[in-house]
Design brief:
The chain is α/β, with parallel strands linked by helices. It folds into three domains: about 60 residues, Archaeosine Trna-guanine Transglycosylase, Chain: A, domain 4 (Roll); about 110 residues, RNA methyltransferase domain (HRMD) like (Transcription Regulator spoIIAA, 2-Layer Sandwich); about 190 residues, 3-Layer(aba) Sandwich (Rossmann fold). It is built from ten helices and 20 strands. The strands form four sheets. It has a seven-stranded mixed beta sheet with strand order 16-15-14-17-18-20-19, sandwiched between helices. The protein has a six-stranded mixed beta sheet with strand order 2-6-5-4-1-3. It has a five-stranded mixed beta sheet with strand order 7-8-9-10-11. The N and C termini lie far apart (about 65 Å).
């Protein structure tokens, strides 16, 4: 194996420290020099300032210049065998988690850095896998990745849909097209904990369904019996469906998107046809809360879209979380329960908790924390990459 397998990137003195702790990102400011002719998505060898080989990764133009694929004393080939081995390891974990069973065929197969494949997300919905690339390198490897997914034994995936038009850096000028790499459309229904859901990976957000809330939806089901439930920012109605099965006396689903509301209605009908306990509302969340009668709901879910996609937006995001939670708490009756979430990666667990604390103080309510929530095990966090812990949640008892 030769050291000239790839073009090289050399770090500034002292900038190898984070890589020695296996952090998978190299920022552009850490690079002292690089070989000429490196293109977006190329695999590069990374060296410390003194020429010690640290590992190999995908190069891209931007703040994050290299996403590390392997930490090795010499270059290794990033080829079919590499992706096959990494995907098999990710698949093995999901089997250990018992996510592949008769009552569940929807799960995340690859969670980027959490599965040591930075820049790659793969969600499985029955016979279809939806692949998202977040880096040029993963975009160029999409065909190899798709074939490796289909070849995983006993996974049962026959179709691979590539959906990266909105996830790749636009400055790379890659012009990705959302389409099937392997197979074709084979229905849109997935099974999660015995409940059926239509998943719109063609036009829906992300890969079509928020698998990261699976465990939290199951927990909500336990709290729903006899409750009047309000599901804000409902999207496809996952929390609403679980609340219905949990025995809620009524469930109201609210989203500003009429399309999202129609998806919620379809999923309710799929599981509870002709059930009159559910109502949907295509309305702005803040206006709906302002107009609702005090004491109308015993259990409220606040699961908004990311208020901060970048660190510069964090202060405004925290004010948004405080405002939203305060308005809800002001209207909730005594002995009610609030499920509240932030999926903003730029907002830390401590910042979110402080925003909710401030909301409770503003609403002048006595509040106790019953559970502190995060993403499920098929969205693992690489211990060397704490930024991967993006989902924060609290279950609160409002006295």
């Amino acid at each position: 194996m030769t050291t000239d397998m790839y073009k090289s990137v050399y770090l500034k003195r002292g900038k190898e420290a984070s890589l020695e702790r296996f952090h998978p990102w190299i920022f552009s400011g850490a690079i002292a020099r690089a070989d000429a002719g490196i293109d977006e998505g190329d695999v590069v060898s990374v060296f410390s300032h003194d020429g010690t080989h640290i590992g190999v990764g995908h190069f891209q133009i931007g703040s994050i210049a290299v996403r590390m694929l392997a930490f090795t004393p010499a270059p290794i080939p990033i080829d079919t065998a590499f992706f096959t081995a990494q995907l098999a390891e990710a698949y093995g974990l999901r089997r250990e988690l018992h996510l592949i069973r008769p009552d569940n065929n929807a799960f995340r197969l690859v969670h980027g850095e959490g599965d040591f494949l930075p820049g790659l997300v793969v969600d499985v919905y029955g016979p279809t896998a939806v692949v998202q690339a977040h880096s040029p390198g993963m975009h160029f490897s999409r065909d190899v990745i798709a074939r490796a997914i289909v070849d995983l034994p006993d996974l049962g995936v026959d179709n691979v849909y590539y959906k990266s038009e909105t996830t790749l850096p636009y400055k790379a000028h890659l012009d990705p097209v959302n389409d099937y790499i392997i197979g074709s459309y084979a229905g849109d229904e997935a099974l999660e904990n015995g409940l059926r859901f239509h998943v719109d990976w063609l036009k829906g957000q992300k890969t079509g369904f928020f698998l990261d809330q699976r465990d939290n939806r199951a927990l909500l089901e336990r709290y729903s019996r006899g409750k009047r439930v309000l599901n804000m920012f409902c999207y496809t109605g996952g929390f609403s469906v679980y609340a219905m099965r949990g025995g809620a006396v009524s469930v109201d689903s609210v989203d500003s998107s009429a399309k999202a509301v129609s998806l919620t209605d379809a999923n309710i009908a799929l599981n509870f046809p002709a059930d009159t306990r559910h109502r949907s509302h295509a309305e702005d969340a803040f206006r709906f809360i302002d107009a609702m009668e005090p004491g109308a709901y015993d259990l409220v879910i606040l699961d908004p879209p990311a208020f901060a996609k970048h660190r510069s937006a964090t202060p405004n995001a925290l004010r948004g979380y405080q405002k939203l939670n305060a308005r809800a708490m002001e209207k909730m009756p005594p002995r009610s329960i609030l499920f509240t979430f932030s999926c903003s990666q730029a907002v830390s667990r401590e910042q979110f908790r402080l925003a909710v604390f401030s909301a409770a103080a503003q609403a002048r309510r006595r509040v106790r924390i019953l559970h502190q929530l995060t993403q499920p095990a098929d969205h693992p966090v690489n211990i060397y990459h704490p930024e991967g812990e993006y989902l924060k949640g609290l279950i609160l008892y409002i006295e």
